[in-house]
């Protein structure tokens, strides 16, 4: 007796929500244009008569086949947890022009030179265009195979013919299957392309890197199912006018998602940065009022950056608060705290606050450095060049503890700084390096007295140990 089919319904491709009639917006996840018609069949899938790969005790499973293989790009290996895992599928998403194809072409060439077979499938460019980029960045190897395909069937045939150890698909939204309706990049096409490539990768232990497009809000284009199917999801970010690129893992089945990879995009390719802090600190012969160095955490990596501030007389009817690289709402809050708690007359002044090098600092630990930079510009008193400051500032003017104080202090000392203003923490500052002075403060008043000359800010009680100039005379290395 044939299977009885129910009346066709509609289902959301993002979350699986079903409804009896079509709607433009999912009633569960509120996504637009994801509700498609489906035929719900009441019959159940029958079990197979035989199993090709029977289950075995977990202790007998050979885990050696899933070991890490370094790519040769240390910053990428840092984010992935050690390298590529055979059979793993990695999705690399980012805005156009950020350097995704350049990074993966470099990875492909390095892997091929190590003796592996690599297949690079491009659907966005011709093979000649990719070859031109490879010549420019020096990414040529004998076992690196290149093909320009837009049909999924032909791409799968290329994979079967080459038998690569590493597969790169640029991008998953440009491939399409002739057996399905819809254009490339559609929900059904992306789902079919991803499922087919993942099946080939898992069954043949092929490490696979997929390039994914992003939407206007920065999320991966296509169905949410794509992120669930892959093993690792990486986000490649960077400002268009800056050479710095940051790689973060938002999902990683084989490691942590706390690591961040830093890259420098140049005309000759893309290079990993073992010490990116030097990009975000200026070098001046004389101290300048309105600048303060901080140590932010990008994942588990300390990053030394400089916050600059300029306070000028108000030019219009309302004071202007302009920021670059910092959260504008937090800067406005710090201006209010400085005025209300310390009496600094910032309410009638224009304030301009920015970071050096285009780096974005979003964690609350940069509050103290921002406040000190604003106070330094307002008082026209430079902060000693060997000082770093970090800590969260509250509305009451208190300095709240932050995480990884010892790691931040160690990074500052490694770069040649002589002292730090840090929050008072129950755990303390940890093991402080020799000849490095640490001032632990609990309020914004104490922080200012620790860095500014005595009597500069009237009415402030000295409660913190002052950073002696002898500890700060040596400029950062």
UniProtKB/TrEMBL annotation:
Region (Lon-protease-like): 350-477
GO cellular component: cytosol
Xref: InterPro entries: AAA+_ATPase, DNA_repair_RadA, P-loop_NTPase, RecA_ATP-bd, Ribosomal_Su5_D2-typ_SF, Ribsml_uS5_D2-typ_fold_subgr, Rubredoxin_2
Protein species of origin: Galactobacter caseinivorans
The protein's name in its UniProt record: DNA repair protein RadA
Keyword Metal-binding in annotation: yes
Binding positions (ATP): 94-101
GO-annotated molecular function: ATP binding; ATP-dependent DNA damage sensor activity; damaged DNA binding; hydrolase activity; zinc ion binding
Family indicated by similarity: Belongs to the RecA family. RadA subfamily.
Entry-linked SMART domains: AAA
Keyword Isomerase included in the entry's annotation: no
Domain RecA family profile: 65-214
């Amino acid at each position: 007796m044939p299977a009885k089919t129910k009346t066709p319904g509609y289902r959301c491709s993002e979350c699986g929500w079903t409804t009896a009639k079509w709607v433009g917006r999912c009633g569960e996840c509120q996504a637009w244009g994801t509700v498609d018609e489906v035929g719900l069949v009441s019959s159940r899938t029958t079990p197979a008569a035989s199993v090709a790969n029977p289950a075995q005790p977990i202790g007998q499973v050979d885990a050696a086949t899933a070991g890490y293989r370094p790519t040769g790009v240390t910053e990428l290996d840092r984010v992935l947890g050690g390298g590529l895992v055979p059979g793993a599928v990695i999705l690399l998403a980012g805005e156009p022009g950020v350097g995704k194809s350049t990074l993966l072409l470099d990875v492909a060439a390095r892997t091929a030179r190590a003796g592996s077979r690599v297949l690079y499938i491009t659907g966005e460019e011709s093979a000649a265009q990719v070859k031109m980029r490879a010549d420019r960045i020096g990414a040529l190897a004998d076992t690196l195979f290149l093909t320009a395909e837009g049909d999924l069937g032909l791409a799968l045939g290329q994979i079967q013919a080459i038998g690569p150890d590493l597969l790169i698909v640029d991008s998953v939204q440009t491939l399409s299957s002739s057996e399905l309706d819809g254009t490339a990049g559609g929900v059904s096409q992306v789902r079919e392309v991803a499922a087919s490539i993942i099946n080939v990768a898992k069954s043949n232990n092929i490490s696979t890197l997929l390039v994914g497009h992003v939407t206007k809000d920065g999320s991966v284009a296509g169905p949410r199912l794509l992120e669930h199917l892959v093993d690792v999801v990486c986000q490649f970010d960077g400002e268009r006018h800056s050479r710095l690129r940051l790689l973060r893992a938002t999902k990683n089945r084989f490691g942590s998602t706390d690591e961040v990879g830093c890259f420098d995009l140049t005309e000759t390719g893309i290079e990993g940065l073992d010490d990116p802090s030097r990009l975000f600190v200026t070098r001046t012969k004389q101290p300048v009022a309105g600048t303060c160095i901080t140590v932010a955490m990008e994942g588990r990596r300390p990053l030394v950056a400089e916050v600059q501030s300029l306070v000028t007389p108000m030019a219009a009817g309302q004071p202007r608060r302009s920021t670059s690289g910092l959260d504008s709402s937090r800067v406005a809050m710090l201006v209010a705290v400085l005025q209300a708690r310390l009496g600094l007359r910032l309410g009638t002044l224009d304030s301009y606050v920015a970071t050096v090098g285009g780096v974005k600092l979003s964690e609350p630990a940069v509050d103290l450095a921002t406040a000190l930079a604003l106070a330094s510009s307002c008082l026209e008193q430079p902060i000693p060049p060997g000082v770093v400051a970090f800590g969260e500032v509250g509305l009451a003017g208190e300095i709240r503890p932050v995480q990884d104080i010892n790691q931040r202090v160690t990074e500052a000392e490694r770069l040649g700084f002589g002292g730090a203003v840090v929050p008072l923490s129950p755990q303390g500052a940890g093991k402080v390096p020799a000849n490095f002075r640490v001032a632990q403060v609990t309020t914004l008043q104490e922080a200012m007295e620790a860095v500014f000359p005595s009597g500069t800010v009237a009415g402030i009680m000295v409660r913190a140990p002052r950073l002696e100039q002898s500890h700060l005379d040596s400029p950062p290395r």
